[in-house]
Design brief:
The structure holds 2 protein chains of 2 kinds. By secondary structure, chain A is of the alpha+beta class. Helix content of chain A is about 35%, strand content about 10%. Chain A folds into 2 domains: about 70 residues, Roll (Ubiquitin-like (UB roll)); about 80 residues, Orthogonal Bundle (DNA polymerase, domain 1), CATH 1.10.150. The termini of chain A are far apart. Among the domains of chain B are: about 45 residues; about 100 residues, Enolase-like, domain 1 (2-Layer Sandwich). Chain B is about 30% helix and about 20% strand. Chain B has a 5-stranded antiparallel β-sheet with strand order 4-5-8-6-7. A 4-stranded antiparallel β-sheet of chain B has the order 9-10-11-12. In chain B, strands 1-3-2 form a 3-stranded parallel β-sheet, with no helix packed on it. In chain B, α2 links the parallel β2 and β3. At the A-B interface, β4, α4 and α5 of A face β1, α2, α3, α4 and α5 of B.
Chain lengths: ~170, ~325
């Protein structure tokens, strides 16, 4: 078995205590993924495992064995990802520390919306067609904190990418 | 974090037939357990990863919906059967944590999660009867805004943190568990223990038992149900108060009702007293308030969380008013 990180197979660590976050940063030197709270409260360490957004700080690296992990380096491997361009265009960042987690989370979030996944603020839970309002984006992105307060730009950037896709 | 052995189980049968080992724990999504291991609250000798076991969500022959214990919270919330037949459960799941955590957390793990009492998590600095039985409780004279007012004991006032389990309590869900000795089924409302003088004992499960599935019985009233969560920020916060409720009406007469409360109790709190007041009653704001007052008659608030008595009454009345539509 192996952990596939951005398309490359990695041997899982022998020490089960190593988090996926530490494996990425300290062993693979993929430092785009950030250490924020290291306790599941801030979202800075968000990566995609088999396409779903998860917190790498609370994931043991061995739990990712046999799975595919995508980090910000993987999302931006072929030039800027549309979300990266939109974050730049809409001032979706100031210091940039939360940005990789924000963008990984947003990429998965847009896929969830396309799959018809509801949120707590979705009025009709039975409706598969989610209209992505500001309120919806704020709720769906609430797991990613930005201490610089760039949230309005982040919402703008995500809505811009979403409208490009549906246009 | 102390070293531990890790093993991923391929099947539930494999997991429950592993040779006995003291200090072995099941690992679901890890969103709570890994955090508590890092904080020095939990120190298992071994983890058996059961997050890969079947998480199917299926309708049984009798019309109930059976959810595999390893189903992720996000998968349950998004499932058409849950969204259409048990909206209070979908809404409760979507109210919990963040999208990332919901993608990780399993249904079985959600039931087994520990309290978020800050004094419980502070292994280095605080006394806690739940963490170390008999050591005392620093919460009682501390910051109690997030603590319980129902089901508390002199030893423990820690609130149960789950949103999902509150909806499951209202829905009469049943928990299927298994061990090498066989299987059994436990009503969700009997699954968690009141703290009493043993707050370290939180569920009726033995250490060798594994949650296999959660069963939602068919329910006519569940289709007309909702979950409302009141918290200190609009999203990604634990409940100060939450209400799961479902109602059946014949005209303006309440023919059946289920209510459970979260954020205010030491376990997912089925509000049987409030239900008894309302069953057969005409839906009205006065009846809703009477029901809320009956449920909270035995509340034991502390100065830091006394506001929850009134907040619970108002939240409950608001949810029931909404569910009753034009009837009230």
């Amino acid at each position: 078995m192996a952990i596939r990180v951005n398309g490359t197979d990695i041997e899982p660590p022998a020490d089960a205590r190593i988090s996926l976050l530490d494996l990425l940063r300290e062993r693979l030197h993929l430092t785009g993924t950030k250490v924020g709270c290291n306790q599941g409260a801030c979202g800075a360490c968000t990566v995609l495992v088999d396409g779903r957004r998860v917190l790498s700080c609370l994931t043991l690296a061995v739990q990712a064995d046999g799975r595919s992990v995508t980090t910000i380096e993987g999302l931006g491997a072929d030039g800027l990802h549309p979300l990266q361009s939109a974050f730049i265009a809409h001032d979706g960042l100031q210091c940039g520390y939360c940005t990789p987690g924000q963008i990984c989370a947003a990429a998965a979030m847009l896929a969830e919306v396309e799959a018809g996944v509801p949120s707590y603020v979705t009025r009709d839970l039975a409706d598969d067609n989610v209209t992505l309002s500001r309120e919806e984006v704020r709720e769906r992105m609430s797991g990613n904190l930005c201490r610089c307060g760039a949230h309005n730009g982040i919402v703008d950037a995500i809505l811009a990418v979403a409208s490009e896709r549906t246009a | 974090m102390r070293p531990f052995d890790y093993h991923r189980a391929a099947t539930a049968a494999e997991a429950i037939h592993l040779p006995p080992l003291k200090g072995r724990r099941w690992l679901g999504g890890g969103t709570n357990l890994i955090d508590l291991m890092r904080k020095g609250v939990e120190h298992p000798a071994a983890l058996v990863d059961i997050s890969d076991l079947p998480g199917a969500i299926e309708e049984a022959a009798d019309g109930s919906v059976v959810i595999g214990a390893a189903a992720r919270n996000s998968a349950v919330a998004a499932h058409p059967l849950v969204r259409t037949r048990y909206p209070m459960l979908a809404r409760a799941l979507l109210a919990g944590a963040s999208a990332q955590v919901r993608n990780m957390a399993t249904v079985g793990g959600n039931l087994m999660q520990r309290t978020r009492c800050l004094y419980f998590a502070d292994a280095a600095g605080s006394r806690c009867n739940k963490r170390i039985p008999g050591s005392g409780c620093d919460a009682r004279d501390g910051f109690t805004r997030y603590h319980a007012i129902l089901g508390i004991s002199p030893e423990c006032i820690a609130a149960h943190p789950s949103d999902m389990a509150v909806a499951l309590a209202a829905l009469d869900a049943r928990v299927h568990v298994g061990s090498a000795a066989g299987t059994r089924t436990i009503a969700l409302t009997d699954f968690h223990c009141l703290p009493g003088d043993h707050p370290d004992i939180e569920t009726v499960l033995s250490p060798t038992e594994l949650i296999l599935a959660v069963e939602l019985p068919p329910s006519q009233l569940a289709a007309r149900s909702d979950y409302r969560k009141v918290r200190d920020r609009a999203s990604y916060a634990f409940a100060l108060v939450s209400v799961a409720a479902g109602m059946l009406l014949d005209g303006d007469r309440i023919t059946d009702i289920r209510i459970a409360l979260g954020g205010v109790a030491t376990k997912p709190w089925r509000a049987l007293r409030a239900e008894a007041v309302l069953r057969g009653e005409r839906a009205s704001p006065e009846a809703f308030l009477r029901a809320a007052e009956a449920e909270l008659a035995d509340a034991l608030p502390l100065p830091g969380n006394a506001f929850k008595v009134e907040l619970t009454k108002r939240t409950l009345a608001a949810v029931l008013t909404r569910l009753s539509g034009d009837a009230a």
